[in-house]
Design brief:
Rossmann fold; homodimer; 22 strands; 25 helices; calcium (chains A, B); five-stranded parallel sheet; 3 domains; 41% helix
Chain lengths: 685, 685
């Protein structure tokens, strides 16, 4: 290849931008950028294909910084290659409302593919991006029309490797034989607690070989650019295995404290920076310097990327002629639009239809829309038969060689790997051609909390099919019965939690989940059968909350979700019969969507003047925003047949009625009972 | 060894009990018990040391069923060996309020060491139990007084191995060279989704070798009892490595559906049971049969265990004479009592003391009590310098060979492995001689949600030192700033969340956390400095909520926690000055403890007649139970210097005052404003 002085200057430019930015913000992590600058230079300038002027070009190579604390490396690269990220943006590193936050955020910064920082997420996102590439290629590429052949590159550190999520994702990536995934492990022997030998002495190479990866080693990761060049070539040449390159580096290379955790999470001292700049041949009096020849070098590569995209656009144009249907499908997907009229496939129910578990109703929705919405890519964390996430004709996403499917398959066998599934879904969605959904028990969405949070933060549309949503799962018992989970997920900003009560509400949940481009959804679905309710429609349910059953001179409003709505219906009858009490019934399948309705509408559902009681078999936390009193389960459940468990905790028409009467009684002395929707001031949302 | 017919009969007895119980309850998992009965027989009858009459004997071998869905295996063994678990208990399998719930629960069933079922937890608990054994041995054993030399045995399945938490825990176990840990992997090739080849094709043996484990293989796991005998002997002989035995088994061995996932999670059919009983030489007309000779065989082993304990008690008695101090310490620990007067070591502050971050206040508490409470065993998930969890003279818990500490060390370097840390703490606490605490950022407690939930469910005292508890962490940004986490953890039953506002409250948090034997705690601690408050005392704070600042003719109550309390103090001054408003201030460091106070006390803190406003820089969810209005952050935070972030979201005296005025205004027309503590009926807790 012939690396020379200019390469070294470019590398040192990256290093010093990271040093200057962390010094200026007096915060951040210079060590990893300084150590990984050489490999970043080789990768970005010699291998990566991208057009900084169009960061969304489909066939760009994806870059993921899984050790996201080293984000000044990524910001420096994005700036130097000409993305919309100025030197002033770098100077504003880690300041409020800058485009350069403390960890990379995909929705903030052009060129950042996924939001990273929480360790292990990025590498798992990268697996998702690689699956998405393989699937998109298998779906759209045609002879002579290789529309999609990009690679996914991922940098990661010791922390990522220690996190269990990376084990889950890496094991799956090996199984799936993702040759398009190339990772670089920054093997610098340093973590926050000091030397890795205090906690992390496993044989990483052997572990990745066990997963079925190609493992390459680079001993002189600070200097041996030729070895890096060769390693990436070798990685790209291996088509049936993901590759991990173990790159021995010196954290904070060049600093007086290099090789210690002193350079991990704190800016360098003034003197140290001075000697460093001198050593690198830079003026120690200047900061944020980009030598002209470095700009030119990287500008040249950027132009090549722009030219490559132009070529690709031509290819796409001729693809449009030869494969108009596929072309239309692809371009529609890239715009983030759903197929016109897709929603007509959503099933509609009447009260005459039989009682069905909402997990089964979800299966029906999926079966109906799966052909209409080809970008749906499903899966389950080894609970397919329980989650009912697989449609009959599904082909598995598998390497051809194992005979169980192929890459055009739209159903992923995630294995018992909830956390990786969540992060992989984030990667799938970030690729741009896929809407992912994944199944597990609601209780085990908690295993994936780290990834779910990042779906919300990075505004990703992915759908959790979270079945067995309560004590209603019965015999498996408290270890599997969520009680705190909905409160947790409802407290998460920009996340929709749906708990549909019947078929129409299940269709509504999917409708809103699918059409919300920037918000993930969790669908909490029952194991047990639920009747089709009188008064439910898709149109009403998509408002998040609505009056299922209105009465004149109402004494109380019963507000409920999911499997408890039908018990409230019976409770209303019981109340009339035994207590001459008039109960309205409100079904509230989704708080977050209800919150976005007009106040007028919301007050028509939960009006002033009538005390209200919520009924849900889990933590009452969060219900106080909507109702005056709450009937729930602020304890763990019990193992037993589901009806026995419901009886034990009095979630019966009698049990609800008793509390409804108490509610009426308690509020009867308060004149003009005010709806809890009335608030003194607006929340910060 | 000479295994014979009686052994086979014992094995088949176990199998059939599992078959009968799942058939009777029409629910449960017969496959794993049938496949693992042979190895269970060899282990329990030939290796395990225990006394069924005293399931809490310290030096018993620990048994953990990580594939907890196979719990009928464990229940059958417990019954057969004479634990307090009757045949009627087995017949009540999976029914409400039985001692035989759908997954093993430690607080329900004598002989169950830890609560398992959520996959991957058990094996990680086992690592904790093994660490606890090694530490207890290093602390209390003396020449000629081997008080503690038990092993920890763990059965696990494919699901456990796929879960990331098992990777984390296993990597650490290898690093720590835990020769006292012996795992048996039920390698049956079957998961819920079918054959493991659809998602799990990694080389498990190689992976565990990479972790530094001894790996043993048994090809004929259904029949080759001699190989099992030999493998356990070999495992016990290896003192410096944990062992995993890869045992090839046939799931549902003997069933017409053996070897398929049809026997994983559903009872066998009647006909199948009939042929099975005939094949095993049992009467097909009878159920729940225990042949007399099997009872006698197992009874003999149980008697040997009882005798072993008797011997041990003699050893302990003579230990008491020779090492009275150590003996007193050990027996005190086993009773679950803290050293008398330990709480005098808790630091007390006055307003004259300087402002200090509560993470630093926590460090001070730990430094003061660490010598007084020798059962405290700390650690951090690679954030020691940030969590401030390590005291100055700490010795690390490390294998002697690496020169970084020894097994008597009381500080664990967990690595970046939050989920494993949580589960390991559960195991440490379950051993009986240790109170564990572990540090990470509050945001990353979510990575461990699965384990935290099981601490709560199984009533385990462990303490999370969860620092960097809000947007107050500043520059790291929204990826690291919790907003939903406290709502999540507060919604979890039997879990205490503390967010202390100053030094006295930090001491109070530790006091209650340490003295609550059956409840875990999460201490949410600030990165930024907090002043010592006028009006705070340990005595007040241990009530969970108290009046920090009372005023006459109060117009409003400001209720807050942690770092926002001192801003409320300033807001109260601002309100008086600018608006002539009288604001009371309530500090509420722990909801759950406050909830346990008398209603009279609670109403004295949050009285009728005064509108209240909560102030906390995170999700407002949950605050509606205590206050009329809520000022919080129902969105993600921002990256920037912490004061800038607080200003951005108006968590300033001005911002609070504005909302306090709005609150007063909004509630002024309501006569006799009722405290939200008044409710129509009691919650189910």
């Amino acid at each position: 290849m012939g690396f020379g002085e200019l390469d070294q200057k470019a590398i040192n430019t990256i290093r010093l931008l990271a040093v200057d930015a962390t010094f200026t913000s007096n915060s951040g992590h210079p060590g990893a950028p300084m150590g990984m600058a050489p490999v970043a230079h080789v990768l970005w300038n010699n291998f990566m294909k991208f057009n900084p002027k169009n960061p969304k070009w489909l066939n760009r190579d994806r870059f993921v910084l899984s050790n996201g604390h080293g984000c000044m490396l990524q910001y420096a690269l994005l700036h130097l290659f000409g993305y919309d990220l100025s030197l002033d943006d770098l100077k504003a590193f880690r300041s409020v409302d800058s485009k350069t936050p403390g960890h990379p955020e995909a929705h903030d910064t052009p060129g950042v593919e996924v939001t990273t920082g929480p360790l292990g997420q990025g590498v798992s996102n990268a697996v998702g991006l690689a699956i998405a590439q393989a699937h998109t290629a298998a779906t759209f590429n045609k002879p002579d029309f290789t529309l999609v052949d990009n690679y996914t590159y991922c940098f990661l550190g010791d922390g990522c490797l220690m996190e269990g999520i990376s084990s889950e994702a890496s094991s799956l990536a090996g199984h799936l034989q993702l040759g398009n995934l190339i990772c670089v492990y920054d093997d610098n022997n340093i973590t926050i607690d000091g030397d890795t030998n205090c906690a992390f002495t496993e044989d990483v190479s052997k572990r990745y070989e066990a997963y079925g990866w190609q493992v390459l080693d680079i001993e002189k990761g600070d200097t041996d650019l030729d070895a890096m060049q060769k390693a990436f070539e070798q990685a790209k040449a291996e088509k049936n295995k993901p590759t991990i390159i173990n790159l021995k580096t010196t954290i904070g290379y060049g600093s007086l404290q290099q090789g210690t955790h002193g350079v991990h999470g704190s800016p360098l001292k003034k003197d140290d920076i001075k000697q460093l700049k001198e050593k690198f041949g830079f003026n120690p009096e200047e900061s944020f310097v980009v030598p002209k020849e470095v700009s030119e070098l990287y500008g040249k590569h950027a132009s090549e990327g722009a030219a490559a995209e132009e070529e690709w656009n031509k290819l796409l144009a001729s693809y449009a002629e030869k494969f108009p249907k596929e072309h239309a499908d692809l371009t529609r997907r890239l715009k983030g639009e759903l197929p016109e009229g897709w929603e007509k496939a959503l099933p509609v129910y009447t009260p005459a239809d039989p009682a069905v578990a909402s997990r089964k109703l979800s299966e029906t929705v999926l079966s109906k829309i799966i052909d209409v919405v080809p970008e749906l890519l499903g899966g389950s964390a080894d609970l397919t038969g329980s989650n009912l996430t697989r449609w009959k004709q599904a082909v598995d996403f598998q390497p051809k060689s194992n005979g169980l499917g192929d890459y055009s398959g739209r159903y992923i066998r995630y294995g018992v790997r909830e956390h990786a599934m969540g992060a992989i879904m984030n990667g799938l969605a970030a690729y741009g051609t896929i809407i992912p959904y994944g199944g597990t028990f609601l209780n085990f969405v908690s295993y994936a909390a780290g990834a779910v949070r990042l779906s919300s933060l990075s505004q990703i549309r992915c759908i959790w099919v979270a079945t067995h949503d309560s004590i209603g799962l019965g015999e498996d018992g408290p270890t599997h019965q969520p009680v705190e989970t909905l409160a947790h997920l409802r407290a998460l900003p920009n996340n929709m939690v749906w708990r549909p009560a019947d078929g129409n509400e299940t269709s509504a949940a999917y409708y809103v989940a699918m059409t919300s481009k920037h918000t993930p959804s969790v669908l909490a679905l029952s194991r047990q059968n639920l009747p089709q309710l009188e008064g439910s429609t898709i149109e009403k349910a998509i408002k998040g909350g609505y009056v299922l059953h209105e009465v004149e001179k109402a004494d109380v409003t019963l507000v409920s979700t999911g499997s408890e709505v039908c018990i409230c219906v019976d409770a209303a009858k019981y109340l009339k019969e035994k207590h001459n009490v008039n109960a309205r019934i409100v079904s509230m399948p989704c708080f977050e969507v209800f919150d976005t309705q007009s106040k007028e509408y919301r007050l028509s559902v939960l009006p002033d003047g009538i005390p209200s009681l919520s009924v849900e078999v889990m933590s009452t936390m969060g219900w106080e925003r909507y109702t005056h009193e709450q009937f729930g389960l602020n304890r763990f459940g019990a193992s037993g047949a589901y009806k026995d468990v419901y009886n034990k905790f009095e979630f019966t028409p009698e049990g609800i009625s008793k509390r409804a009467v108490a509610t009426i009684d308690f509020w009867k002395d308060v004149p003009n009972v005010r709806s809890p929707l009335n608030r003194a001031f607006q929340q910060i949302i």
